[in-house]
């Protein structure tokens, strides 16, 4: 699973049968790359979503015969993309950089 942001809807009038009744959304990943995903959830531009890929993408759709390798699995209610998780220093496993450098 990945976290992406919805940037718009992709409109296609001519589609193969396996994508005939799917909403297609344009997503932006963390690197700024654009992706296209099927949307069984009903997202809006600006929403942060998590996606499922591969065969899990097909299974996320109402009809598992839908031809997709990337589907939106849900809308994230709260997400701060600039927040980065840091290791818990209370466990004592991590030494400060200065101590590691001196030990080497």
Describe the protein.
The chain has 104 residues and is an alpha+beta fold. The chain has a single domain, classed as EutN/Ccml (OB fold (Dihydrolipoamide Acetyltransferase, E2P), Beta Barrel), CATH 2.40.50. 12% of the residues lie in helices and 30% in strands. The chain is built from two helices and five strands. The chain has a five-stranded antiparallel sheet with strand order 3-2-1-4-5. A hairpin with a 5-residue loop joins strand 2 and strand 3. The two termini are 38 Å apart. Pfam families: EutN_CcmL. This is Carboxysome peptide B. It comes from Lamprobacter modestohalophilus. It is found in: Bacterial microcompartment. InterPro entries: CsoS4B, EutN_CcmL, EutN_CcmL_sf.
> What structural class do helix, strand and pairing data support?
alpha+beta
Sheet with most strands: 5 strands, antiparallel
Tell the overall outline. Answer: globular
Oligomer: single chain
- Report the portion of residues in β strands: 25-35%
Q: How many β strands by DSSP? A: 5
Query: Can you write the helix and strand succession as a string?
Result: EEEEHEH
Q: How much is the radius of gyration in Å?
A: 19 Å
How widely separated are the two ends?
Answer: 38 Å
Order of the strands making up the biggest sheet = 3-2-1-4-5
Provide the residue-averaged pLDDT: 82
In the residues, how many domains can be counted? 1
The CATH architecture category equals: Beta Barrel
């Amino acid at each position: 699973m990945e976290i992406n942001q919805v940037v718009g809807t992709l409109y296609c009038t001519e589609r193969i049968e396996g994508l005939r009744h799917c909403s297609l959304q344009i997503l932006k990943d963390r690197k700024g790359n654009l992706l296209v995903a099927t949307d069984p959830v009903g997202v809006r531009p600006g929403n942060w979503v998590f996606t499922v890929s591969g065969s899990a993408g097909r299974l996320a759709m109402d009809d598992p015969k839908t031809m997709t390798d990337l589907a939106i699995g849900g809308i994230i209610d709260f997400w701060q993309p600039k927040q980065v998780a840091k290791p818990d220093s209370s466990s004592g496993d991590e030494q400060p950089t200065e101590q590691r450098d001196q030990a080497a």
